[in-house]
Design a protein that fits this description.
2 copies of one chain form a homodimer. With 191 residues, chain A is of the alpha+beta class. The first copy, chain A, is built from 9 helices and 8 strands. In chain A, the strands form 2 sheets. The first copy, chain A, has a 4-stranded antiparallel β-sheet with strand order 1-8-3-6. The first copy, chain A, binds a DNA duplex (30 and 30 nucleotides) through helix 9.
Chain lengths: 191, 191
DNA sequence: AAAAAACTGTGTCATATGACACACTAACAA
DNA sequence: TTGTTAGTGTGTCATATGACACAGTTTTTT
């Protein structure tokens, strides 16, 4: 729980009472490798915060191929926004790449926290804005960077992902094939 | 102003007083073709809502080539999130592709509206969540769709953009070259 | 009205990429 | 331990793409 407390503190100070109220609505969970957190056609009812292990968020394109949308690493807060906010089923899936430990905030509790008082409501608003800002940067990177640059970006910001995630999944995440990612690596190690 | 009022009504009902307070802080503006709304190294101080014409939001990649990040069409609410929320300069630019009319909400007024009362604060929170949800879908499309699929997607959801925007800019938006977009079009019209 | 600039559509060509195939190693289950 | 499955790294080959070039058109400027 300390990891989550530190995460929240990063968004500003909260009184002990408010922090307790917040943390009091969050529950722990775990998955063993290959278990699915989200199944296709499911409606996502929670926000998740990973503390250990890696989650693989993916979908299938129109040709039936699996496409990686995100690797969720420890210290990352995640949900499928569209499904969570609109309470409609998603076509995507989320699976544990390793044994995973996480915290979970149910939508009903999320609403309770927002309704509790002005401080908490503003706190949530602030987090939402930060996440929105980060998502916009993601779009920007996706459009302006090459596969190689995206690979180097992940290597810089989250080297553990590069070490722990299978090449095929990593390649899909940066929008290229397994073989081309190998070529990129060869090129980089040659230089 | 009616267009903006309709836009807000789409997010839920507001009392006349609250709606007036909201609209009272929004100012009109215009640009003539080729004028820049945002210059590189500028800090973005407002949220914009376009009512007429098209804006071209773009940046430059590491090789100095211009990359289109978004075409902002009428009825669309836009800002550079990172610069606006963190008040730091952006490297991106935003230029009018045609004569443009827009509404503008300054950051200071945005804060005043959030602080006015619970209703307005929740209203803004709601809009933020919707925009976040839309941004996440954008990332998803970018990763899971091919250039051709993205072209068809724009053609379906916003045909005016396809008609009004130069091919080179449109090609850049869907992540391909001007020539390849021509090839896509030839392929589609042949079928 | 004339000149300049911006944009479109298409052809040629080199090349980066994806698809396929295969050997090898690591991880896992019976 | 042994057999099975999952993952890695690399080679070959067809092809979709980007870069370049150019002619024709439209738009803008003077």
């Amino acid at each position: 729980m300390e990891m989550l407390r530190a995460y929240f503190n990063g968004f500003g100070a909260l009184s002990e009472a408010n922090m307790d109220f917040l943390l009091g609505h969050i529950h722990e969970g775990s998955l063993s490798k290959k278990q699915k957190l989200i199944q296709a056609n499911q409606t996502v009812g929670s926000i998740y915060f990973v503390t250990e292990g890696f989650l693989h968020y993916y979908t299938h394109n129109d040709f039936g191929n699996q496409v990686t949308l995100k690797i969720i690493a420890p210290n990352f807060c995640w949900t499928i926004m569209d499904s969570f906010f609109h309470q409609r089923p998603t076509l995507d899936e989320c699976q544990a790449l390793s044994d995973v430990r996480f915290h979970e905030l149910k939508k009903s509790d999320f609403l309770k926290i927002k309704a509790k008082n002005v401080i908490l409501s503003n706190f949530i608003q602030n987090i939402t804005e930060q996440i929105l800002s980060a998502k916009a940067l993601e779009v920007r990177k996706q459009l302006s960077m090459s596969a190689e640059e995206r690979y180097l970006d992940i290597l810089n910001t989250n080297p553990k992902i590069v070490r722990e995630v299978p090449v095929s999944i990593l390649a899909s995440l940066i929008g290229t094939s397994r073989e081309t990612l190998h070529r990129i690596r060869r090129r980089l190690s040659a230089a």
